[in-house]
Amino acid sequence: MTSTPGSTTPSPPVETAAVVAHGRVDVNEAIERVCVVAERAGVAIVDEPQDAQLAIALGGDGTILRTLGRLLGSGVPLIGVNFGRVGFLASIEPGELEPALRRVFSGEYRVLELPTLAATLDGATYVGVNDVVATSGTLGRMVELSWAVGGEDVGTVPCDGMICATPSGSTAYNLSNGGPVLSRGLDAMAITFIAPHSLHARPVVVGRGAEVEVRNVTPDVGAAMLVDGHRSADIPPDGRLAIRLGEQRSLLATLPETTFFGRYREVFTSHP
Fold first, then answer.
1. Active site residues
2. Model-level pTM greater than 0.70?
3. Which of 132, 157, 94 is nearest to 227 (CA)?
């Protein structure tokens, strides 16, 4: 199937599903509720999300993003039930779990194909569904990062780091550092500096095909690369990191009435 960012695909009735909670004991009752709805709908619950037709994540955005990453390349979409503080990526609230899942199991859901990031460092490639961050490898030490977009030098910024975020990840670490929110459907990434020691560093949004190169030009401080919040590799002085929009897509399932700006209004106008 040819992917287009934010596109939807037809959804047949669900025959097999998996429940993902990443060890959270506070959702054990909700897991039982999911299993009851599944049994009554004739849906088999399987252990491995990769073996299911649909995965159901019980948790917040962190749980959803971790599971989306785990499911990359499997073709299995994920729908979230919000047991987190924000739950921007979730489509179902706990109080509506049973009626919502009955609809989902009957095929009343849509699948959004969302961009990922591909980061290349020292010949190895890493894939992120949320963000890729180049940050100081030493707590309390600033780094100087030079950066280029599409091979064109943009300058050098003394800072605590740089964030490259997908639209999915734009509402996470990127947003908390003053970066822009990217609506679903954009095939783009946001570039935002962390605590820049400059009045001229501004967030930038770039589209597909524009590779971002980040170089650590700090002579005595190493940098680290974080992929979806996990330290994945070190960037030595003069090390180069290349970040681009990846070919893989993360598959987020939602109820038909769940829209980006509807969730935006609910989440960001009701939370301090």
1. 61
2. yes
3. 132
